[in-house]
Amino acid sequence: MLGSVETRSFSPVFVGRAGELTALTEALARATAGEPQALLVGGEAGVGKTRLIEEFTNAACDAGAVVAVGGCVEIGADGLPFAPFSTALRTLRRRLPDELAAAAEGQEEELARLLPELGEASRESGEDGTARLFELTVRLLERTAADRTVVLVLEDLHWADASTRHLLAYLLRTLRRGRLVVVATYRADDIHRRHPLRPLLAELDRLRTVRRIELSRFNRGEVHRQLTGILAVEPEQALVDEIFARSDGNAFFVEELSVCHESGCVPGGLSESLRDLLLVRVEALSEDAQLVVRILAEGGSTVEHPLLAAVCRLTEDDLNAALRAAVGANILLPTEDGDGYRFRHSLVREAVSDDLLPGERSRLNRRYAQALEADPSLVRADERATRLASYWYCAHDAAKALPVVLRAAVEARKRHAYSEQLRLLERGMELWDSVPAEVRADLRPLDYAGAYPSCDTCDPATTPLGYLDLLAEAAVAARFCGERERAVKIAKRALRIIEAEETDAPPGAPHSDPLRAAWFWTELSKLVQNLGRGDGWDELATAQELVRGLPPSAVHAAVLATAAGWGMLHRPGPESLAAAERAVEYAKLVDAEETELNARLTLGGLMVDAGDIEGGLALMRGVIDRSLEMGLVAEAGRGHVNLSSSLESVGRSQESARTAAQGVRVSRKFGLLDNEAWAATNESDALLSLGRWDEAAERVEWVQRSGVGGKPRGYAALRLAQLSLLRGELELAEARLADAVGYFGARDPLPQNALQVARAELAVAAGQGRFADARAVLARAVEGGFPPGTQRYGWPLLITAAAVEADLRGLPAAGPGRAESLALIRSAARTMATPSPLAKAYALCVEAELARADGRDSAARWEAAATALQPLERPYELARVCHRWAAALLAEGNQRDRVGTLLRQSHSAAVRLGARPLVEELELLARRARLPLTAPEPAVPDEPADPAGALGLTSREQDVLRLVAAGHSNRQIAEELYISPKTASVHVSNILAKLGVSGRGEAAALAHRLSLFTEKAA
């Protein structure tokens, strides 16, 4: 009976695709050599993507690679979060158990969100959770593929859930090492204008590390060869012409039409509709086999054998016979693990599913749901909630669907799959009104909601879940997954509901739910800031007004902590300090330790700004330690960022650099990408102050390449603009400054942004001779005053402005507006705080520049400024002050020996730094004074303290040579020093030239022979 369908319909001969297969195998070779590869394979349905990937993976296995395949799963309208990655990691765990265990060591709790077999997933969730999971996944793959070539195949991206798309984008942007090939396939004809995969493809096209392969249809000759392989005989030319014309060269349609020919169909007798063509082979099956195929089509992309057996209700023999027929007809395929079945081609599954009657589809979904409820072990635990939710939803049983949809949303949140959580919550909101009240009354916030803090006046174990609880969950999920516009709409909808409840209340009744309203207004404040639509203060003020006078609560503490953090950034000063202290007290009262730590970190920074430096720094260090102890890695990451910033603000640049570098390591370990970028930016600040300009540039260039959000990139661009100004690259500085302004936006002006931008704008305008513009920049910047906390940025602005005015003294064209500008500088300097040695040194610099601008230049003032700067390890600022000191001494007509010493020291520092404008000024002054810039050679040369330095190597080149001597490749050097491989290559080339050797081996041998790094290596 089944003989007529057991017909070979695919060719044993691989036809065409020679160029595409070559591209894949070349990528495999490059990956085996240590250069990770990424390829996207697209084409219309049935064009031959799967066959190409099969040929490639077979070749990869023959070459000794480990292949892990994961497919995106379509279940109803929702994909399973991270499904292809979970499946592929499961394969890697089975094939490389030791390697994967070693790669995941220490991060099992986080990675269990993708691979539950690693253990119990961490309960922590939050906005940084997704980035952390993504970073750890990339590191896991890189480490697993460190010594063994791994091919990761992700199929059917057109069905990918948002979390999978985001993880893939992150992987392809950040993958830097490992013998790894990532191949992702998608159905090109499904990617319509509004398909969610479309923007991802556009983004990946811009990455030079990703190659896209598009499969075209077969030509007539290739169809001829395919038919020859299928029929095992030379086909007649008329048959080739007919099938080529009707298939349009689509490989799958060629197979289907050849089956029709072999089955005795009259040529041309088939329906022209695609569905009829795809169903021809199904309709040739037995009744039982057709039933099994229809049931399988509604179960999802893959269905486990035990679940299928429970739903089909056939005897074991009948089921096996039906499956054997469907597999023999090349309609179904067993899954790789042999535990289930899938359609050989998704087009057939779609055609079979579309052919079901609506009532039939609902009944099948109900049977799937009932079978899964009766025996949850029928599917893997990590898929159970999502699939059950889909089955009950498609069965149109709202009462059954709502609890499992909400349970699936909780599971998605635990996996940081916030996009899928949002969609499930929206489905729950859609079902809400259709669900009987008695069913809703049994739902508890404790089980399904965690965003809104539990109310202190109600028992969460007995209080029913409310619609506003769902809105709170959805608002946070939307913010976490980046759908901030959707989050704003949800928050506003919740506030309208609360307002409507108040309107319906009796006159004079108290606010119906002030705490919940305050919570939503706080969320709205964060969203307004994130979207760049304002500073968020109006929303936050509304929240504070709502909680005013209420007993302490977790919501009250969170509102106060958020307000204190806002004040630290927007309005630093005594009021914000008091707000932070109040937030700490409230959080203590309600035992909300996480909120308390957040508020303490804010308080510590404000204490440093106010002058209690040691107390504030100690408080911040305590927050970092406690956060790590509690596993609050996001708060610990923020702690390193804020602490390093505060250390830099008081002139402790060495300590700031170490703290920021530790923050980079902690953030990288836990996958906190944004925190890593902020820490790297802070490290660049400290390195810039310490005169390690090349390293500072490398840090911020990494930030710009890392794919983080706008503000960290804005700071990176601003640092590069400052570096360009110091090096005399005015046009480049102007371009980088424009980039920074674009990243910062105009609707949420933070003082720390505005003052630094103003200083750079003033310097650029003055350098271009636009004196009026420079003065206008200053006037705008000082308009708001300089409250405590802004002096870190205010003093450098005043130094730059005063220096410009001093340089312009006596220039007639610069006369108009000069007196007013000097008055503004003096007024601002009188009111600006000097809580730290650095601020006091800056104040002395401003005083000296103002005296120079008035024609009262004094060597004593510059000597005082130099003395104050000397212990702060700021070589550029010290060299600049010593230059002014030398000029003042010359003008006073004495101490030529002292002048010569000052000029030589300043010139040496400026040359080493690459500060071209300062070098030129010093050389001009030396020529005018007829003083040499080089000291006479001593009779007996001193033994150099640093042999590597004696060879002419910079500190960065010494770092690189140390790693070369240890046998590191350029890529490994780049990873170790946070630079690009190209930069590492340039450093290596410079080292070889300075050492006079021809290769890395000779350089390493010379380093060992001279014992250049013996002490440091020990």
Descriptive report:
Helix 7 packs parallel to helix 8 (197-205), helix 28 packs antiparallel against helix 29 (593-610) and helix 47 crosses helix 49 (981-995). This protein is mostly helical. Strands 2-5-6-1-7 form a five-stranded parallel sheet, sandwiched between helices. Strands 8-10-9 form a three-stranded antiparallel sheet. The protein has a two-stranded antiparallel ribbon with strand order 3-4. Residues 1-9, 268-273, 937-945 and 1014-1018 have low confidence and may be disordered. The termini are far apart. The protein is 66% helix and 5% strand.
Keywords:
10 strands; single chain; mainly alpha; 1018 residues; 66% helix; 5-stranded parallel beta sheet; disordered N terminus; globular; 51 helices; 5% strand
Outline:
With 1018 residues, the protein is mainly alpha-helical.
Ordered list of secondary-structure elements with their pairings:
Blueprint: H1 18-32, E1 37-43, H2 49-62, E2 66-71, E3 74-75, E4 78-79, H3 83-95, H4 97-104, H5 108-111, H6 129-144, E5 150-155, H7 162-174, E6 180-187, H8 197-205, E7 210-214, H9 220-231, H10 237-247, H11 251-262, H12 274-283, H13 287-299, E8 302-304, H14 305-312, H15 316-328, E9 332-334, E10 340-343, H16 346-354, H17 358-374, H18 381-394, H19 398-414, H20 418-432, H21 437-441, H22 445-448, H23 467-480, H24 484-504, H25 514-530, H26 537-547, H27 554-570, H28 574-589, H29 593-610, H30 613-630, H31 633-649, H32 653-669, H33 673-689, H34 693-705, H35 710-726, H36 730-744, H37 751-767, H38 771-782, H39 791-807, H40 818-831, H41 837-853, H42 859-869, H43 875-892, H44 896-913, H45 916-929, H46 947-950, H47 955-965, H48 970-977, H49 981-995, H50 1000-1009, H51 1014-1017
Parallel strand pairs: 1-6, 1-7, 2-5, 5-6
Antiparallel strand pairs: 3-4, 8-10, 9-10
Helix pairs in contact: 1-2, 3-4, 4-6, 6-7, 7-8, 9-10, 9-11, 10-11, 11-12, 12-16, 13-15, 13-16, 14-17, 17-18, 18-19, 19-20, 20-23, 23-24, 24-25, 25-26, 25-27, 26-27, 27-28, 27-29, 28-29, 29-30, 29-31, 30-31, 31-32, 31-33, 32-33, 33-34, 33-35, 34-35, 35-36, 35-37, 36-37, 37-38, 37-39, 38-40, ...
